[in-house]
Design goal:
The chain is built from 6 helices and no strands. It has helices at 10-21, 45-54, 57-82, 97-133, 138-153, 158-180. Helix 3 (57-82) runs antiparallel to helix 4 (97-133), helix 4 (97-133) packs across helix 5 (138-153) and helix 5 (138-153) runs antiparallel to helix 6. The longest helix is centred in the middle third of the chain and has 37 residues, at 97-133. It is elongated. It starts with 9 loop residues before the first helix and ends with a helix.
């Protein structure tokens, strides 16, 4: 007899389901958002769009390319000032200021292109690996390092690609461990 007893009618159950789930046409004011630090601020649609654009793989790769080029310029400037192309011996001629600036320009541009390439490839591969795996951990940098090192090393052959992949993967893992410790 206890089994046959109905606590709610079908109409009452439908009302409860509509109240809990909602029809999607009204605004719920009873949303509970946990506070971490400070007040809770609900983001506007524009803020969400900008955040999504800045978290995209293309944006991360582009920023890494630009910043890599800038870092390469600075390192190239330092490198060309430390190691000037000056000939030694009795037939060595004195370099002009124009030749020195041209040497600085070509060295800096060369370093900039290389750093931009490495930065863009690493950021793109890390973002792609992270998107594919659905996790954010140290393995993403390791896999991205292997991809980047392999692509750079493949210009010199398959063996160099394998060595480059292994070396860059180890380097990326060490850097990631150091930065997160």
């Amino acid at each position: 007899m206890e089994k046959d007893r109905i606590f709610f009618s079908q109409r009452e159950l439908d009302d409860v389901a509509q109240r809990l789930i909602g029809s999607g046409s009204h605004y719920r004011e009873n949303i509970i958002i946990p506070r971490l630090l400070g007040p809770v601020i609900i983001k506007s649609r524009e803020e969400k769009l900008i955040e999504a654009a800045m978290e995209s793989c293309a944006f991360k790769s582009g920023i890494s390319c630009v910043l890599g080029y800038g870092l390469g310029l600075v390192i190239g400037l330092f490198s060309s000032s430390v190691n000037p192309n000056i000939g030694f011996g009795p037939d060595a001629k004195t370099q002009t200021v124009r030749e020195i600036f041209h040497d600085i320009k070509t060295t800096s541009h060369s370093y900039g292109k290389n750093f931009a390439f490495v930065g863009a490839i690493f950021a793109a591969s890390e973002c792609a690996v992270e998107s594919y795996r659905g996790k954010t951990d140290w393995r993403n940098g390791t896999y991205a390092g292997a991809i980047t090192g392999g692509l750079i090393g493949l210009r010199a052959g398959v063996k160099a690609g394998i060595v480059g992949a292994a070396g860059f993967a180890v380097f990326s893992t060490i850097i990631d461990y150091y930065m997160h410790s």
